[in-house]
Amino acid sequence: MEVWNRETVPKVMEIVSNRLPQRDLISLLLVSPWLYRTLSSHPSLWLVLDFHEMNNAGNRLVAALSVPRYQNVKHINLEFARDVEDKHLEIVKTKCRNSLGNLGVLNLNGCQKISDNGIEYITYACPKLKAFSIYWNVRVTDLGIKYLVKNCKHVIDLNLSGCKNITDESLKLISENYQELEELNLTRCIKLTDGGLQKILLYCSLLQSLNLYALSSLTDEAYRKISLLNHLRFLDLCGAQNLSDDALSCIAHCKELASLNLTWCVRITDQGVISIAKGCRSLEFLSLFGIVGVTDKSLEALSSFCSNTITTLDVNGCIGIKRRTHDELLQLFPNLKCFKVHS
């Protein structure tokens, strides 16, 4: 029995612990000295620090990174964690930097007490960072992005959604330093203009995902250049009130596009949608919510070219489309599973 406890139980727990949440895994350390030694000796169990929505997360982060088992952490999630401030990230920079040398993913979404200085502190310690997300932070400015591109040269996934104080200067920095960028979220970055976006479209040609949700001031001058993104699969243009059929026809050159959100793109008519149907034949997700200028002609074109691929189609509020019942849509799109994206 003693041999079984010492040898078999730790091996079984090691296998099981790979599937456990971080909190449960830490609790297992307290079960017995044998488990503590076994679990602590396997680095693969300690690659993630998840403090999302937790209280006192700043102090928790500093404490965790001071523990040897977290010296090779790859992913830190502080999404909507409370009590994370610049001072905590400064401590991480000065005392825990060695633990972050291999960090690849950093989620600071909703951490609204972090400023440009905090970004400088944490990114300084993360030279291998590939994914950085700081959604809903109005304290971040172009200076924070300057620190990011200076300290982290390998970012391919960047979420700046809701960072309302960044300007075209940030997009210039991103375009010059992140030409391997694959995902970019600029939702509600309301100070951006056509000029800044065009730099991204010209230099970040490997983009696969681009979120321009609620950027109503952009115009066709920028939208036309989206056609340069040959690898684009996801595009959110919700609220693009200046988007015309002509620009949408240019976007139709993105042959790999699988997800397209045109909600409240009020200038669009059948002409633009038919261009998308003919050009984007891998389309799986399409929202036309609230567009009164499209008719059944759009559905007929989409059915002709994308009937086997589309699984999500929202035409609610499209008063020009008469064949809108579930049964009628299923006749046109047999693989349709979702009929409503917006509520």
TrEMBL record:
One BP annotation, GO: SCF-dependent proteasomal ubiquitin-dependent protein catabolic process
Domain of life: Eukaryota
Descriptive protein name: F-box At3g58530
Species of origin: Olea europaea subsp. europaea
Sequence intervals crossing the membrane: none
GO cellular component: SCF ubiquitin ligase complex
Gene3D superfamilies linked to this entry: Ribonuclease Inhibitor
Domain F-box/LRR-repeat protein 15-like leucin rich repeat: 101-212
